[in-house]
Amino acid sequence: MAAGSGGLVGAAPVTGLSPAQIRNRMILSARVIITDHWPRQGQRDWCPICHCKWMCDPTLDAYAYLREVGQGRYVPPQMR
């Protein structure tokens, strides 16, 4: 949005969600990323999405976010 067009430059879009709701959705998204990129049985150390050595960049980023919010020890339910 250009300056002078009536809106704030750099303002966040209005979502109607509270900061706690946004945080919870981001935590859920990070967990989904980790679950989707978790190696499958018989393919240890291989990301089924990225087709590269595990831990792939999306998994590392998701874990970094979870660590930042104090929930970094997540393991997908099927692996427990």
Description:
The chain is an all-alpha fold and 80 residues long. The chain is 39% helix and 0% strand. The chain has a domain at 19-69. The protein contains 2 helices and no strands. The longest helix has 19 residues, at 19-37. Residues 1-5 have low confidence and may be disordered.
Indicate the overall shape: elongated
Radius of gyration: 17 Å
N-to-C CA distance? 47 Å
Total helix count? 2
Q: What fraction of the residues are assigned to beta strands by DSSP?
A: under 5%
Helical residue percent?
Answer: 25-40%
pLDDT < 50 stretches: 1-5
Biggest pleated sheet: none
> Given the helix and strand composition, which structural class is it?
mainly alpha
Average pLDDT level: 86
Give, in order, the helices and strands.
HH
User: How many strand segments?
Assistant: 0
Topology:
Elements: H1 19-37, H2 57-68
Structure summarized in a few sentences:
The protein has two helices and no strands.
Overview features:
39% helix; elongated
